[in-house]
What we know:
This protein has helices spanning 8-15, 82-85, 95-98, and strands at 2-5, 30-32, 35-38, 49-52, 63-72, 88-92, 101-104, 116-122, 130-137, 143-145, 166-168, 171-177, 183-186, 195-200, 205-210, 222-225, 230-234, 237-238, 247-256, 263-266, 273-283, 291-299, 305-309, 314-315, 324-333, 339-346, 351-359. The protein is mainly β. It is elongated and about 80 Å long.
Amino acid sequence: MKTLLAASVFALALSSQTTPGAPLGPPNPKAYNGSLTYSIVPSPTVSPVVALAGAGAGNTTNGVYTTGYAYRTAAGYTYTSAFNDGGTTVTVTDATTNGQIAVSGLTDSSDGTVLDKVYCRSKHDAANILYVVAVIQNGTTTYTDNTADASLTVVCPVVNTTGGVFSRGTNLPVYTIDEYGGLNFATAFDGSVAITVLTIWETGFQLDTLPAGYHVYATTPFKIDPTIGTVTTYAAYTAVGLGLAPILGTARQTGKTTAITTTNLIASVTTNAMFHVDASLLCTTTSAAATVNITIGWTDDSNTAQTSTLGSAVACTALGASSFGTLNFNLSAKAGTAITYATSIVNTPTYNVRVTVKQETVN
């Protein structure tokens, strides 16, 4: 059972109840004395055991299948077991002679609110999306899967909704309490469309963007350490330093016909660190003997003013290989100083300029 302390606005709503401490709404969730209490059924942690049944020809297709299962209550479904262990796999090599799948280990939940189980399977060689194959009654732990891929149309649930769902009527997003203690904001929960889930934990938050029906979830795509604001996990990688380089400065000007005076990209660098600059110049119309160049300025760790420009100015006489240029480099800047950009012109070019600055290191 997970408890989420209610915000003051929710406590105010409680104070308007005619009977103090009376529950709000249906049995899941319940509100007592300023707290929300959710009864959440944990999802299965171990996927079923699967093997070729040895029962002759079947309706499957040659290939690799991923399997899992979920619990169902009156309120909703748990995650599939594949979220916890990646699912179990079986390979059909010749469906004409051995094309059925023997499934075992569909363990019952110890939670008395579970009505039954849902056995889920991917289509062949498509491991990440699991579909409902069959409803398995409590007390039954085995199943013979002889279902063709074409019959798999209902995607298994991808968010644990056994604790109930907040939503604005039929509108998305929906809000659920995760079985691991996170607060989920999801754009869908039935697996029918691609979803984005923002989960808030005690120790940080993670943002997951999953395609429709995505079930195999063995790694954390994105996680931030809130104590220092750095990304600690990205895709399957443990990140170091900042994790992801934040864009701290950007500029975009289009249709320019005059020079741009020195302008801050970052007004004051917060700490001595390495930064990466990407700049693009592009002539948009022809102009006889007209050129444009860009200058990036900064002060390095030794308190020395530095600049960098394109090796050759962009020429607007004709549009082509010489009418655009890019500047991409790293620099070290001193805390408390600015990173700037400016352009210089000859005659009257018409041009676009775009610049970004990312911080690459913590210090």
